[in-house]
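Can you give me the bound-state structure? Components:
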Amino acid sequence: MSYPADYPYFIAAWILLCGLYGIARSRHLVHMVISLTVVQSSTYVLLLAIGFRRGGYAPVFAGLQTGVKVVDPIVQALMLTDVVVETTVVALLLAMVVKAHEKGGTTSPDDLRFLRG
Amino acid sequence: MKRSHRLLLFAVGAAGMAFVYCAGALNMPPWGQYRGPYGDVIAQLAVYQRHATDTVNAVTYDYRGFDTLGEEFILFSAVTGVMLLLRPEPDRSEEKGGGGSGNPASFPDRATLSETVQVFTTAIFGFSVLFGIYMATHGQLTPGGGFQGGVILAAAPMLLYIAENTEAFQRIVSHPLVEFFEGVGAAGYALIGIAALAMGAAFLTNVIPLGKTGDVFSSGTIAAISACVGVEVAAGFTLIIFEYLREILSRSKADEE
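Here's the bound-state model for the whole set.
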């Protein structure tokens, strides 16, 4: 294999930076929220990469003998809850975008000056 | 700040972060050679200690149950926030002559799909409800659990929306019981934890009899909490979808007038 042995870690960093770049140059609040989800998905890649074990089975012992080599169940549990919770948080952020557009008539993060005191 | 300045600042920060991250990642154990002790310990013990064959859910709803309670309340408050933000505003509905009062049931829309698609989507409705319940109740045995099952359950009314019309969808999701179930799901989780306190154990201790490994009613509180989370997630997602739909409908109605 020509890749470095731990390339998933760098894929996670790449996804994280892509998302941050999207937030930094965003011209639209919806685009910004979606960029945030890209940032968040980088944590899934990182966590699963940390817990992965070559040749390991899924940590579900239905039809699998206890004692076999499995991947780490803890990191999977960490991201399992987050996938669903993230969706509701995105819904909350998008609701804020709807209200910002309603009150300020704009969806550009640069034009949110009406929010000031 | 000018855009060019902002991007320059981002480039500097990103380069610095990438450097520190790479330095850190190169010193991690190589990919595929997991060395942490905790995952192995849980994977070996969960089946014997908790009679749950899906160790991921044993971690989520038992060993890490307290954190999941927090996550559940993030979900709960996010849903509450969406409902608060998107609630129909009285001034807008007065302007539009009661149009945006959150009762767009008279909004004329019918599904434009072919009858074949409608028939099959309606048929899948029952299947997806069943599948969602199956997922939420078998989390302790196989991959699945309350979070996944809840989302599948919440998708079922969407199928009805696709196949039928907004009215049929609204009859289901605007029911007061949906809000009731959202509260029941969140409270049920906390009450299961408090029940352990009442029995003299620590908060969220697995006090329900564990049952036989592989049974649906096994693993004690894992199955119970998973079911509570399923109810909570299903109701929460349904409420979010309904609030957005109401927002869209009141807008398009206002545009028409």
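A couple of observations. The mean pLDDT of chain A is 86. Chain A is about 60% helix and 0% strand.
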